[in-house]
Known about the structure:
Two copies of one chain form a homodimer. Chain A is of the alpha+beta class. The first copy, chain A, has two domains: about 90 residues, Winged helix-like DNA-binding domain superfamily/Winged helix DNA-binding domain (Arc Repressor Mutant, subunit A); about 50 residues, Ferric-uptake regulator, C-terminal dimerisarion domain (Dna Ligase, domain 1). Chain A has five helices and six strands, in the order H-H-E-H-H-E-E-E-E-H-E. The first copy, chain A, is globular and about 40 Å long. The N terminus of chain A is likely disordered. The interface between A and B is large, with 40 and 40 residues. Strand 6 of chain A pairs antiparallel with strand 6 of chain B. The structure holds a DNA duplex.
Amino acid sequence: MTASSTHHHHSASPIWEAHARAALAAQGSRAGGARQLVIAALAGQACCASAQEIHAQIAATGGATGIASVYRTLDLLHGLSLITRIDTGDGVARFEPAHPDGAHHHHLVCDTCGSVEAFHDDALETVIHTVADRVDFRVDAHDVVLRGACRSCR
Amino acid sequence: MTASSTHHHHSASPIWEAHARAALAAQGSRAGGARQLVIAALAGQACCASAQEIHAQIAATGGATGIASVYRTLDLLHGLSLITRIDTGDGVARFEPAHPDGAHHHHLVCDTCGSVEAFHDDALETVIHTVADRVDFRVDAHDVVLRGACRSCR
DNA sequence: TTGTTTGCAAACCTTTTGCACGTTA
DNA sequence: TAACGTGCAAAAGGTTTGCAAACAA
């Protein structure tokens, strides 16, 4: 049994939040207000979210942040490999926490309604590592996106 | 022997070009000038290309086309599944001919120089189909992007 | 002729950047 | 205080759309 379900594995990551804060501090970054809000929003999301969505969610919880700070924080976190960037094909970048243990999932994107679900598959990971070893390329990361119709749109 | 090399499989597709033209005609579309130029440019490309690149290449070969017509044609072709859309992660959509026999490849993207190479792997295709069968989602297409550093940037 | 396609320009959206002000350590 | 972070507004792409002229069938 190599495959898990498509259910989300977590809807909030206090562990990741602490990890991210520590990594930033260790790197010499300061703990500004906008930065904290973005990290908290990322930690609280179930799957990937765009910069605009994170900005909106911060506003919805009473926070106030410039959109530029959201983009700058995402850029900073991504540069430190604290978040993963996902392109679901609609021209908008989405992000989600990158777990320190390397655990990650891939995405099912509905072409009709645009919803995104997560899935994980060990056999898929194994094959990708095999491919990564044989190509003349140093592979640091990989993305797999399955497109089609979700349960409700099907 | 399940895996092929990372070399490009074709640098021009007259077969695809005829196929695309026939599909458009069968569907009632007219053969306008811009449309022909975009189809010819797609047929002649080795791997995926963005709308802007296709537009530039048409200009380079003496053609003249409005960028809007390039986007409209790409949209039309994509809607008929005559081309595949690839997102390499830089926020620009890229396209390449979709072969009628379903043959396709995936991409290696260099995070340093942005170059894109193609690769194919049968085991990867098999695993993806297995995953597609088990998830609660109708999977119509899939994309795999491996990121890292190409030979020259490594 | 008649509906389709095209080109231009303007509009849209996401993302980036310059710069002055506010904040952290 | 000295460097860093933030917000605003403007700029920079890429992509889409309205519309009148050009064109294919």
